[in-house]
Design goal:
It is a single chain. This protein is mostly helical and 908 residues long. Among the domains are: 11-200, Rossmann fold, CATH 3.40.50; 222-273, no CATH class; 275-384; 618-756, Tetratricopeptide repeat domain (Serine Threonine Protein Phosphatase 5, Tetratricopeptide repeat, Alpha Horseshoe); 767-908, Tetratricopeptide repeat domain (Serine Threonine Protein Phosphatase 5, Tetratricopeptide repeat, Alpha Horseshoe), CATH 1.25.40. Helices cover 66% and strands 5% of the residues. The protein contains 40 helices and 7 strands. The protein has a 7-stranded mixed β-sheet with strand order 1-2-4-5-6-3-7, sandwiched between helices. Helix 18 packs parallel to helix 21. Residues 1-18 and 119-135 have low confidence and may be disordered.
Length: 908
């Protein structure tokens, strides 16, 4: 647990003795200035946000939205500010940060551990960072640039750390895309109880102070002053800018204004009719500077070699001295013995301001990307000559990464790998020749490089319309199957981009369906449940048509129906899931009767799923019968081939134990579940990563069954083991395991309370409620029943802790949820409503609150349990006796002793 408040220097975040994941610094509010001589030597430096030469104007609507997000009453929240490069994200964020500081907020920035630390000399002190002297700190605003380039797990860790101990914390993420990587991140943030939203930054609006011509005029005057050009106000905007073509981003307009003013100062003719020609002009001025430095003895390195160093820096970003030396050598900029001098000379024009860093790239990023593009042969801008050296420089720079990305390779790729690939992708998105001459050959030859680039880079790659789909095919073939924290969002984006091309080229329906199934699976693993459901529907529709005309396709239809049932259950459509799985089971039962060797295993899978759906929809006896059938099949299969079928047998035994307990057969449930635990313990010894989640599930059920068998110590021990495993699993993959963790915490809370450990019981129950409340906000249909279960357990824990007011609120909330659910499906939800009505009454009795309302609730509970007991006496007779006891106690307190005596059940 880490607090990042009151910070003026670096905070290095590490877990144990592991390497730091990220660093937190004071936000750089210091506003350095350039001399006229520096500005004239390198005009492009005037574009950097840290100099704030051009006044910030416009974006009033966005600033209002940012302020509303910051000043909301929530304790912590995340906001993504996203838009294409050059849209003005950094300037807007800096302006908002300054306004926030004036409102008393402490403003910080987070940097990934791979980024160099700022030097002490360049780091703002407390006065520049903290709230105004004498005023209270309103909260902490943490700004994170290039958020899409962080590994997902590390970004989540940083945001969780930043919000854990702050009374009010805001994390502002800056990124270019907001596609699948962001959708998946929002899903995971929600599971961490961190509300998240996105604010797109659009192109310039034709409003006051934001139209291109007005922005040009304001920037022109400031640049003219910085370059000491009194007549600069007479420079007219390019005709193309007045027409609006190509100049719809703030940075493009500012670059045009700077180039026009500088060209006017030097009286050199310049054609500035497109953003590309503007970049070419400014980059030519950079090259002039390198030549002048070398000619005057300011540096020993030639302009040509400096250009290669600047190109390399645009790919690597700032790195440590040793890595910088290696990068220059790898790219072919110079020999190893020359690298030290080149690094020194490069820093004359591009100082890093970092403690141990070299190769500061060109800023802003848009200019660095344009330098990559214009230096690389293949562009059509006639005012800038390409350099043949650059045609193969990226391949040389990434050669070591390519070899480390090969199958079975153990070596770590160079530290600049992720940055270089992201830089190439960002530049190629605007420059088609880079996609054709750099990305395409590089990734066709070494597609596994994208495994180092991250999910955000994969998503951005999939968005490049002019990238040949063959490249994405090569990359897709290297992506891991199944769930992958960092890559799953990008893998889904790649699959979505490829799907239309693959489907159009499919030579037969079988291939067509495999394509849709791949898309469905990728969407599922990325947490895109609704999209996966839509893809699953398409697959079922096609297989249904094929099977209707030819029964040979019935196995495929059944398989797709079973998958669709899982998707429907995941979004809370339980009845639809049940109907779908019934159809799948019917098909497979027919097939298995005709050919058991081929179809029996698939029938068992459907029986398992069907049993779960039946239990969820309030058909406990049918669920039990169905699962018992699955056990019979699996017993026979496992006896013939234990290695192949023991894991499946353990799964169906686990389900059977749950369903036996649901109908009151607790001793049998305990015996069956113990058997599942024994099998799974043995399997974990051979393969922990594969079988630990299943072991945790069975241990959790075992704890509940042991408690019902009045073995409290053993029950508590089993449940604590389950929670310990789930804690570890959920830390790495909350999407997959937090639901199960909440279930185990529920049971643990009950067992802790029975052991008299009430404060621990309350803490466990509150954690379970927190997880489930978060899930229910995004998908009420899927998670409200579980939320109600956790709230039901929380009420008595609060009452035991003396928090009767809160207990009353919670028990009332859970009755409201369960009453609504019971109206839609009485068979599934009436038993739980009856339990919650009884708890509602008991808490009111303990608090001496509204006994008539308590009596009304417990009478309704007793009426429901009487009906249920007639159908399932083993499951509900004991519960009815407890409810009647509560009812009799309330009647006694109301002075209705005769009625109390009449209904109180005899003591056993």
């Amino acid at each position: 647990m880490v607090q990042v408040g009151e910070t003026t220097g670096d905070v290095n975040i590490a877990i144990g003795a592991e390497q730091a994941l990220y660093q937190v610094d004071a936000f750089p509010f210091g506003q350095p200035s350039l001399t006229v001589e520096q500005a004239r030597a390198q005009p492009a430096r005037l574009l950097q946000a840290r100099y704030s030469v051009a006044d910030f104007t416009g974006r009033l609507a966005e600033l209002e939205q940012l302020a509303a997000w910051r000043d909301d009453t929530s304790a912590a929240s995340i906001l993504l500010l996203h838009g294409p490069g050059g849209q003005g994200k950094t300037r807007l964020a800096s302006h908002f940060a300054r306004l926030s500081r004036e409102r008393g907020w402490q403003v910080l920035q987070a940097r990934h551990a791979s980024e160099p630390s700022p030097s002490p000399a360049g780091r703002p002190g407390p006065a520049a960072d903290g709230p105004r002297e004498g005023g209270p700190r309103a909260g902490v605003l943490l700004v994170v640039d290039y958020a899409e380039r962080w590994p997902t797990a590390e970004l989540l860790t940083m945001m969780t750390d930043a919000t854990l101990q702050e009374q009010q914390a805001r994390v502002l993420l800056l990124a270019r895309p907001a596609g699948v990587w962001w959708q998946t991140l929002v899903y995971r943030l929600d599971r961490l109880d961190l509300p998240a939203a996105a604010l797109p930054l659009g192109s310039l609006a034709d409003g006051p102070n934001t139209d291109p011509e007005t922005l040009f005029t304001a920037a022109r005057d400031r640049f003219a002053a910085a370059l000491d050009l009194p007549g600069g106000q007479n420079v007219a905007p390019p005709r193309a800018l007045r027409d609006g073509s190509g100049f719809r981003q703030a940075l493009s307009v500012h670059m045009a204004a700077l180039a026009a003013v500088d060209a006017h100062r030097s009286t050199a003719p310049a054609l500035l009719d497109t953003p590309e020609r503007v970049s070419a002009y400014l980059l030519t001025r950079e090259r002039d500077h390198w030549q002048t430095l070398h000619a005057n003895g300011g540096v020993r390195t030639t302009a040509e070699t400096l250009a290669h160093a600047v190109y390399t820096a645009a790919l690597t970003g700032a790195v440590s001295y040793d890595h910088g030396r290696d990068a220059l050598t790898a790219s072919g900029t110079c020999t190893p013995d020359q690298a030290g001098q080149v690094l020194t000379d490069h820093a004359v024009s591009y100082p890093t301001g970092a403690a141990d860093a070299v190769l500061e790239p060109l800023h802003p990023d848009r200019l660095a990307e344009d330098f990559l593009a214009l230096t690389t042969p293949g562009h059509t801008v006639d005012s800038y000559s390409a350099d043949p050296w650059a045609a193969t420089a990226p391949q040389r720079l990434l050669a070591a990464a390519a070899s480390s990305a090969g199958p079975g390779a153990a070596a770590e790729p160079p530290v600049w790998t992720r940055t270089a690939i992201n830089a190439l992708i960002a530049a190629a998105a605007r420059w088609p020749h880079l996609a054709a001459s750099q990305l395409a050959p590089l990734l066709t030859a070494h597609p596994r490089l994208m495994l180092h680039a991250g999910g955000g880079a994969l998503s951005a790659l999939a968005d490049i319309e002019h990238l040949p789909v063959e490249v994405l095919e090569a990359v897709d073939a290297q992506l891991p199957e199944g769930q992958h924290t960092d890559l799953a969002p990008g893998a889904a984006a790649v699959a979505a981009r490829l799907a239309p091309h693959r489907l159009a080229a499919a030579s037969n329906l079988g291939e067509y369906l495999r394509i849709l199934h791949t898309l469905e699976a990728r969407q599922w693993y990325a947490g895109l449940r609704s999209q996966a459901l839509e893809s699953g529907h398409q697959v079922v529709t096609i297989w249904r048509g094929l099977a209707h005309s030819n029964p040979v396709y019935e196995p495929d239809l059944a398989r797709s129906l079973s998958n669709l049932g899982l998707h429907l259950a995941a979004v809370g459509r339980w009845e639809d899931a049940l109907a779908t799985e019934r159809e799948a089971t019917g098909i497979r039962r027919r097939l298995a009767q005709a050919d058991p060797a081929t179809h029996e295993l698939e029938l068992v899978q459907s029986l398992i799923n069907l049993g779960r759906h039946l239990a969820e929809t309030g058909h406990p006896l049918e669920a039990l019968d169905t699962t018992e059938q699955a056990v019979e099949h699996y017993e026979r299969l496992a006896q013939a081939d234990p290695a192949a079928h023991e894991a499946g047998l353990a799964t169906v035994l686990h389900n059977l134990g749950v369903q036996l307990a649901a109908v009151g057969r607790h001793e049998e449930a305990l015996t069956i579940t113990q058997r599942a635990v024994d099998i799974r313990r043995r399997l974990v010894q051979a393969s922990p990563a594969t079988h630990e989640p299943d072991l945790a599930a069975s241990l959790s059920s075992l704890g509940a069954h042991l408690a019902a068998a009045e073995q409290p110590a053993e029950a508590l021990r089993a449940e604590q083991q389950a929670v310990e495993i789930y804690e570890r699993l959920a830390q790495d993959n909350p999407v997959a395991y937090e639901i199960d963790l909440a279930s185990s915490l529920n049971i643990l809370g009950i067992l802790l309370a029975a052991a008299g450990r009430h404060s621990e019981a309350l803490a466990a129950a509150q954690r379970a409620v927190g997880i489930r409340r978060r899930l229910a906000r995004t998908n009420p249909a899927a998670h409200e029943p579980d939320l109600a279960a956790s709230l039901h357990n929380l009420g008595p824990h609060l009452a035991a802790a003396g928090q009767l007011g809160q207990a009353l609120i919670v028990t009332e909330e859970v009755v409201g949820i369960r009453r609504r659910l019971a109206r839609t499906n009485p068979a599934a939800y009436e038993p739980n409503l009856a339990r919650s009505l009884a708890t509602f009454a008991r808490v009111r009795v303990e608090g001496g609150q509204d006994l008539p309302a308590a009596l009304e609730a417990v009478q309704e509970s007793a009426e429901i349990f009487r009906r249920l007991t007639q159908a399932l006496p083993l499951a509900f007779d004991d519960r009815l006796r407890v409810v009647l006891d509560i009812q009799a106690d309330i009647l006694d307190q109301l002075g209705r002793t005769e009625e109390a005596t009449r209904i109180r059940p005899p003591r056993l």
